[in-house]
Structures are given as C-alpha cells and as structure tokens.
Design a protein that fits this description.
By secondary structure, the protein is an alpha/beta fold. It has 13 helices and 16 strands. It has 3 domains: about 1-80, Winged helix-like DNA-binding domain superfamily/Winged helix DNA-binding domain (Arc Repressor Mutant, subunit A, Orthogonal Bundle), CATH 1.10.10.10; about 120-360, Type I PLP-dependent aspartate aminotransferase-like (Major domain) (Aspartate Aminotransferase, domain 2), CATH 3.40.640; about 365-465, Aspartate Aminotransferase, domain 1. Bound molecules: pyridoxal-5'-phosphate.
Length: about 475
C-alpha cells in the first residue's frame, strides 16, 4: 500500500529541495510514523505533488537508500526497509478505544453474546450472489450522487416487506435508509427538534438508547415494564413529555410483545399529549414464541409513530443499515434534512440488500433463523436447568435472550466481567435500569449457542456464579 506522506518543502531557506525531502522522510521513518514495509510514493507522484523535478525526488530517495532506510525492488517501487539501522522509538500509544462507546465485538462474538446474528447459519452463498450482482450493477451505474433517502429500489422493497411482515402500509417516499437504528434515531431527534426535551424510556430498556438520548441533552423518564410491556405512568405524568421510545415487537431485554391494550394506551397518550413515539423494531420480525404482533406503526392512525427497523439482527450489524418510516405529512421535512445532513450510505451495500430481498432470500432466511433460534433456545434452557443452581430463576419467553435473575444486591456487573474474561459474553442486567435498586441478573444471547459445546459453557458459567 502506498503511504502518501508529503514532506514539507520550502523554497525560501538555503537548504536544497533534495535535502528537505530526504530529511522530512528520514525523520518520519525514524520516528515510526512511516512504518517498516510501508510503500513510498513513486518519484513521479511525489515530484508532481511537491512541484519539484523527478531528479530531485530520486536524489532524496538515493540518500535514504545510502542510509539503509529504504529498499527498492527493481523498478517496482520504494519501501521503508524491513530492518532499520536504528530501531524506531516505540509507537505513540495505540489509538485509545473510548470506553463504552463501541460494542466490544472486535475479537468476534463471544459465546452468549447478545445482539449479533448466528454466524454459522448465515446464507453465505445467496449473500455472495447478491453482492456480486450489486457490484456488476455498480460498474455500469452512472457515477452521480445517489438519492440521499436511499436507493429507490431498496425503499420500495422495504415498503413491500413492511406491509407483508409488519402490517405497516407506507409509501416508499416515507422510507429512509439509515445507518441502522442508531442513525435513524439521530435523524428523528434532529428533524423533530427533540434535543433538550423529555422522553419516556422503558425501565428496563436498551442502555445505548438511554445514553444516546442523554447525549442529546434529553431527560429520560423511566416508564415501567411489566409482563404486558411498557406502561406510560399516566398517574404521575409530568407535563411536557415530548416523546416515548419503545420496543413493542420484542421488549429489550425482557422479550414480551406490547399487549393490545397497552398499544392503544400508548397511541392515545401520544395523540392526547401531542407527543411522538419512536418504535424500535430492532428484532420485531424474529419473535420466537406466541403470536407475532404487527408493528405499532401499523395501528398509527394519527401519524405519531416513527418506525425504525434494522438489518443488524437479521443480516449483519457490520452492514450499518436500517430504515426509518416517517408519517406521510413529515416525509418532505425528513427529505430536506437527510439531503443536507444525513444521506444514506454505500449504494453498493444497499443494492446488495435489495438483491437479497427481491430474490426471496431475506424472507427465507428469517423463516429459517426463527427455527434455528427457537431450537438453540430450547437447548440452552434445558442445559441451564441442568447445570445451574435451582435458586437462579431463568426466564426465556419471547426474546433472542435468556435472562438469569440473581439475588438482590448481587454485583452483576463484576460477574459479567469475570464471565467475559472467560470468553462468555453475558451482559449484566442492572445497567438496563435507570433506578439504583434495580434487579440483578445476566442476559445470555442465544444466537451462537451450539449443541456440541453448550454444556461445557453452561458449566463454566455455573462455576462463575457459584458463591
Ligand atoms: C434494543 C436495540 N435497539 C437497536 C439495536 C440495533 O441498533 P443498530 O441498528 O444501530 O445496530 C439493538 C442492537 O443491539 C438493540 O438491542
């Protein structure tokens, strides 16, 4: 890979241009900025970028070569020498990773990792075909700025999918392709001017959503979740709550669907209070038990609901693709915003997803995965029942997770830390609550559980949990 470092040159002093280029490159090689094995720009490129003759650059490169700082491979190019005469000082500290900002998935999903799809069951062949076709399309597509709302063909596909799978009837002009749920949330907060306002959030609820709202200076008011889902605390209703964020299809993390009465109450609250609802349908189509409910947006007669879906759980979180459906009357306002500030990302990735969907693979994949996940959950629950102390309550309805409840006051954060150090990617339950005296427990993702190793992993977890 060519490293396009440009040494600074000046025509004002007495130092020759050759010496300036030589000294500039020498210092970045010796301080480790240009790493061993990095390729230098060709004489031609560097001379045209610096506005000097090729001979000047060549002489500078010769001086580097005399000091054994670079090596050439015939006429193929010039590289920083693999072995330097003086070893460079230790690199400036590796770029630090901001604590808690990213999902710590870089080492690959751990066992029980929540929030990732099953890697081993991914339909790689169909997916590869969808990408190959997308690249073929890309090569002949005019190189112009694409529609910032997302590819029209993908928005049409998503609108069709939502009508069939989630009961939402919308026009493609209401659909915006976004950088997952997270990107869509940012767009809604901006367009609806919600920064600095008040929001109901589920208690317990997805900590990242709460942190996102806090970033935007939004006051989060806990709305309790019971076995019928989130309940707007009408009796203690603070004036001026502007919106609610809810996971009606599969409550995160407890897994139940919002009951019909609660859905109606939530929509009525929004209507009566001139408030908005953000529906996080991150895995609504992957409900594993009971009747699969339609999206909340399907019942939204008053245009109060922003429906957000994501391909992170159904395809791959690395795609960073999701979709936002806005009420019809607001489509134009959102178009103006995304056009200027938040256009949809890579057209190739969008095209690949569209090919995958229009080829019928997406529906087939979802159907298969529901069966795979249901099987993995059954196996996990059976094994946990065998391996765990009977005093540990285990809940497994609905969601793509199993919840273990630990005695009040247990330090579930430390326990999860120990488990993660042992390659078990469980999450602590308490950070999903805003209140301090939260229930304690662990969340176990089922996606990557396999029959062959589930017993040993549950045994290891049981040992960590035993006093
Ligand atoms: C409750 C909830 N919402 C949304 C998301 C997905 O976010 P994104 O689409 O930005 O990957 C997740 C992923 O873990 C989640 O658990």
């Amino acid at each position: 890979m060519a490293d396009s470092y440009l040494p600074p040159v000046s025509r004002e002093g007495h130092v020759s241009l050759t010496q300036q280029i030589f000294q500039g490159l020498r210092s970045v090689i010796l301080n480790g900025t240009l790493q061993q094995g990095a390729r230098l720009s060709s004489w031609q490129d560097l001379s045209s970028q610096l506005g000097v003759s090729r001979g000047t650059v060549k002489r500078a490169y010769d001086l580097l070569k005399d000091e054994n700082l670079v090596e050439t491979k015939g006429s193929g190019g010039t590289w920083v020498a693999a072995v330097l005469p003086l070893s460079p000082p230790p690199q400036v500290a590796e770029e630090s990773k901001p604590e808690g900002l990213f999902y710590d998935f870089e080492a690959g999903p751990q066992y029980f990792q929540l929030g990732v799809p099953a890697q081993d069951e991914f339909p790689a062949k169909a997916w590869y075909g969808a990408w190959r076709q997308a690249i073929a399309t890309e090569i002949v597509r005019p190189q112009i700025y694409p529609d910032p709302r997302g590819l029209a063909s993908l928005r049409r596909e998503v609108a069709g999918y939502l009508a069939t799978a989630r009961g939402v009837h919308c026009l493609p002009s209401q659909v915006f392709i976004t950088s997952g749920f997270t990107g869509a949330l940012g767009i809604v907060l901006n367009v609806m001017n919600l920064s600095g306002k008040k929001a109901f959030v589920e208690e317990p609820g997805f900590p990242r959503t709460r942190h996102a709202l806090e970033q935007a200076g939004i006051e989060t008011i806990p709305a309790p979740v019971d076995d019928r889902g989130m309940r707007i605390p009408v009796e203690e209703l603070q004036a001026g709550v502007d919106f609610a964020i809810v996971t009606p299809g599969q409550q995160a993390p407890l897994g139940m669907t919002l009951s019909p009465a609660r859905r109606q109450a939530l929509l009525k609250w929004a209507d009566d209070s001139d408030a908005w609802i953000i529906e996080d349908d991150y895995a609504g189509e992957l409900q594993l038990s009971g009747h699969v409910s339609q999206a909340l947006a399907a019942d939204d007669a008053s245009g109060r609901v922003f429906h957000i879906g994501s391909f992170s759980k159904t395809l791959n979180p690395g795609l960073r693709l999701g979709f936002l459906v806005v009420p019809r009357t607001l489509a134009e306002k959102f178009t103006a915003f995304v056009g200027h500030l938040a256009p949809a990302g890579s057209v190739v990735a969008q095209q690949a997803v569209q090919n995958f969907m229009s080829g019928g693979h997406f529906f087939r994949h979802l159907r298969r995965m529901k069966a795979v996940y249901a099987d993995r959950k059954t196996v996990l629950v059976e094994t946990l029942r065998r391996e765990l102390h009977p005093a540990i309550r285990c809940e497994f309805d609905g969601a793509l997770s199993v919840r273990l409840f630990l005695p009040p006051g247990t330090d579930d954060v430390s326990i999860a830390g120990v488990a993660r150090a042992n390659d078990l990617g469980v999450l602590p339950l308490s950070p999903w609550y805003q209140r301090k005296d939260s229930p304690r427990g662990l969340l176990l993702g089922i996606a990557n559980v396999r029959r062959r190793d589930v017993a040993s992993r549950c045994k290891a977890l049981s040992q960590i949990l035993s006093p």
